[in-house]
Task: structure prediction
Amino acid sequence: MNSELRSDPVTGRTVIIARGRSERPQDFARATTIRSHATCPFCRGNERETPQALAAYAVGGAAGEDDWLVRVIPNKYPALSFDAAPPTSLSDAEYAPTTGAGYGAHEVIIESPRHVTCFSRLDLVETQLALRAYRDRLLVHRDKKSLRYGQIFKNNGADGGATIGHVHSQLIATPFLPREVSAELAGCRRYFESHDRCIYCEMIDRETTLAQRTIAETERFIAFCPFAARFPYETWLLPRRHASQFHALDDIALAELAPLLRSLVAATIAASGQDAYNFLIHTAPFDTSATDHYHWHIELFPRMLEVGGFEWGTGCHINPVPPEDAAPQLRTMAQSFWDRKTS
Amino acid sequence: MNSELRSDPVTGRTVIIARGRSERPQDFARATTIRSHATCPFCRGNERETPQALAAYAVGGAAGEDDWLVRVIPNKYPALSFDAAPPTSLSDAEYAPTTGAGYGAHEVIIESPRHVTCFSRLDLVETQLALRAYRDRLLVHRDKKSLRYGQIFKNNGADGGATIGHVHSQLIATPFLPREVSAELAGCRRYFESHDRCIYCEMIDRETTLAQRTIAETERFIAFCPFAARFPYETWLLPRRHASQFHALDDIALAELAPLLRSLVAATIAASGQDAYNFLIHTAPFDTSATDHYHWHIELFPRMLEVGGFEWGTGCHINPVPPEDAAPQLRTMAQSFWDRKTS
Result:
């Protein structure tokens, strides 16, 4: 059941061939399981249906099997696993397809013991502990010599790629630097070399001054719709002060981030009118120390449109909702959710 | 209603912001319209519901509004249009977001006058004329000075990104070289420089020798599952003899390609068990003459899995069906369809 890493000989694009994952009960069904609390494997009380926890969180800190609020488990149908040997090299310069075993981590972060199906319906403490789990799991994996990147991501709703409805996020830690992260790093380096400044810091300044695409701000964080948004209602969330590593956040910063992210998810759902969305954390690779040119951030977007042949063929997205139109709507909705929750 | 081209300041990724497209009746519905022949705008007899034809094909050649078999019309909700001014430059090296008007073509190729909802259900002559229309429309646009690429693509089924059920393909001709095409070209150039050979020609030799991932062959064409397939049952279709430009194909070659492509689509549907799929043609950019290093090809894949945060965040796909498992199934299914249709 081990998976395999393959590079496309032309583009160097890496894919994970993971035969075992087609055994997932819901795979290919394009629908999430609607389960009651009694049969949901992610609900408290049903821990035996899932592998043993890698970590569990309660208000006071570590938790047991009966008082956890956030629980981290290995993915039962992993795309990558430590059972495989670390790849020796994954060259993409040649045809002579370089193949590696699917070495890496694939974990599930269950974000509530209750049968809740959306991040926006988490308690504040659950939200905070979820973010803490993201950080801690990145810290656990970053020192493994053969791992290069940790991708935290959330798939919500069937159209968002989720196969289980109970609210959860995932971590996949890879032995290669993913293409999209690599493209961002290259862009950041290029800009830094000619301007001696982080491009995301520049962007934050410009968006703040322009005030057309901004959605929300707290002391430490800012959210706006990006200038070249791929998706309707796409939102980026960044630390206002330069920081390249999500895993370097302390508990105080996470406590501030939690209600902001939750209100942005709520706004995303309200604006799109449905519950399918993704968010993902882009952070510096494991093997770089804190850098001046990269800036960690969260990308969040609802899944309103199905992409098709044009997007797959070109990498170019067609977005029918300009970010300047999306931002005022998201701003109002995020604010009203925030007020309701904190009043 | 003009659209706008925007480059992401970090990655240079181009997006098309096309406000007008959210007025499409089915947009955001994630479902194709189920229409009867009487109300379908793409059926023969209902030509008044669509813009005037740019081209129409019958068996003998050009056709009128009442005897066409394949009909090309402008997209009513275009992502790009010639009403806009050609962009002067679309630099992506700087933050200082470079923006251009949405100059280009967006056309719909209606592939049958009958209310057929899948490419595999076309008559042979319709299939041939559809391919001829793809070629001719590329030829029409390639000499426009400000256009750089023509992307022919098909979205079939709601999960494939289609909003209208009646069988059709599309062409979007862009004033920029799309990211994915650019990545392929770079890979081809790199390989050619060190091996003095086209990498796709090399691939065809290796796949033929290995005979593990091949699906079908004719005198001029070959189809196989690519080594690093992103999607379950992904298929590539290529000319066996080196050729960089799809638009250079003559009618004889198109007549040979038509039944092969049709049988591959039928096999894709049979293997995936549903009707959502995409195919797209990757061909040399408009501004290059025939080259030794690039090789045109068709990429075809069913839409069985919803991609999620991991794929969007990393550009890395997780494919649960190894191409070595997919190919024998597709081979049998394509062969049996072929036999049924030609017996």
Summary: The two ends of chain B are 51 Å apart (CA to CA). Chain B touches chain A through 91 residues (CB under 8 Å). The helical segments of chain B are 124-142, 179-195, 199-210, 251-272, 309-314, 323-342. Chain B has a mean pLDDT of 90.
